[in-house]
Every structure is written in C-alpha cells, then in structure tokens.
Amino acid sequence: MNTLFAETLRSMRTAKGLSQVQLAGRMFVNKATISRWESGSRLPDAAMITRLSEVLDADVGTLFSAAAQSEESPNVIMVDDSRVILSDGLAVLEEVMPNAAITGFIWPKEAIEYAKMNRVALAILDIELGTASGLDLCRTLLEINPRTNIVFLTAFPDYSLDAWGTEASGFMVKPLTAEGVMEQLKKLRYPISMGGTDE
C-alpha cells in the first residue's frame, strides 16, 4: 500500500477543485481507478503518472517521488554469468538503492526460483547468459510477476532491437554505472524507491 502517493494525489485533485469522477473523465479511466489510487491499493504506471501531472498541472517529479516511496524494501535482482561483472554491478546497485534488497545470480534457474518466492520489483539481466538467453529469462520473470521492471544489460548494443521486442523497461550497455542506473529508474513502468537519493 502506498499512502504517500494516495495522499499526494488526493491533495492535488482537491486543490484543483476536481471530484474523483471529474478527474477520471479527464484521465480517460473510470472512477474506481482513481479511487484505488487514492486509497493506496493501486499505483499508476509511469505513463499514467505523467498524464496525471499534465491533467492536474502538477510537478511530475513530485508525483514520481511519492510513487517511489514504498513501505517495504523493493527486491532487486541482477543476473549475469560473469562473476566479476556481477560483483561490480551489485556494488553499484547497493550505492544507488541502499534500501533495496539486492541479490545477484549467475544461473537463470536460481533467479527464477527466487522470483517465485519473492516479488521482484526490478531485474537487471545480461542478454547472453552462457547457453541461456536473458530474453527468455525476461519472459519467464514477467509470467511470474507482470509488474517486474526488466532492464537489459549487455556488452553488445546490437541486441537492443531484440530487447525492445520484450516488455522490458530499459536497456543499458556494460559496464553498469550509478548514473546509468539512476537514469533507468526514472523510466521504469512501475516506479520503485531509490532509497535515500535526492532524485
């Protein structure tokens, strides 16, 4: 449940003198959707948050920041078949998202088992995982939880077209950097907490 976003949205709506029905009409959604957002039981995706900022003439950064304030630590995983790249990448993720529960995997099957037992908010996947494919892993993770944000990480930019054929949120070329991660976090379909950053 996200009470901060709910309270922020309700405050912005009432400041504009709009009812839930009126806001729903301008957003092209039904009243129940607005009600769920304002109760904290549901969170709009990035596209809807952007539209809310336009309809309410409100700062989009304020809405994204409120959406990112989760009451629980998000589970973040990184899957790469290179131990060195994985180790370096996990250090970067811990720097950028100090409040997240971050776990690394060499083997895709272990990542899948973890995802079955834990709700993964963000998965950073190498595209070439030995004999396995990060594209296939992406599809499996999304079958387990359609709200998992997937970001591909690869040394081969040519894979970007294949990556966009999935429902991934982003694509980065190795090596993983704090700046690159922070930029991707702004573009996620389902915002998550960065844990203590000023973004």
Termini Cα gap: 21 Å
Mean pLDDT, rounded to whole units? 86
In the predicted model, the low-confidence regions spanning at least 5 consecutive residues are: none
Structurally, how many domains make up the residues? Answer: 2
| CATH-assigned fold name of the largest domain | Rossmann fold
What is the CATH class designation of the largest domain?
Alpha Beta
Helix percent reads: 40-55%
- Computed over alpha carbons, the radius of gyration is 18 Å
Strand order within the widest sheet?
A: 2-1-3-6-7
Give the full name of the CATH homologous superfamily of the largest domain.
Response regulator
Number of strands: 7
- H/E series: HHHHHEHEHEEEHEHEH
Helix count, per DSSP?
A: 10
Q: Strand percentage, roughly?
A: 15-25%
Q: Which word captures the global form?
A: elongated
Task: Please specify the SSE layout and strand pairing.
Layout: H1 3-15, H2 20-27, H3 31-39, H4 46-55, H5 60-68, E1 75-79, H6 83-96, E2 101-105, H7 108-117, E3 120-126, E4 128-129, E5 132-133, H8 134-144, E6 149-154, H9 160-164, E7 170-173, H10 178-185
Parallel strand pairs: 1-2, 1-3, 3-6, 6-7
Antiparallel strand pairs: 4-5
Helix pairs in contact: 1-5, 2-3, 7-8
Description:
- With 199 residues, this protein is of the alpha/beta class.
- The protein has 2 domains: 3-68, Orthogonal Bundle (434 Repressor (Amino-terminal Domain)), CATH 1.10.260.40; 75-185, Response regulator (Rossmann fold, 3-Layer(aba) Sandwich).
- 49% of the residues lie in helices and 16% in strands.
- It contains 10 helices and 7 strands.
- It has a 5-stranded parallel β-sheet, with helices on both faces. Strands 4-5 form a two-stranded antiparallel ribbon.
- The longest helix has 14 residues, at 83-96.
- The two termini are 21 Å apart.
- The mean pLDDT is 86.
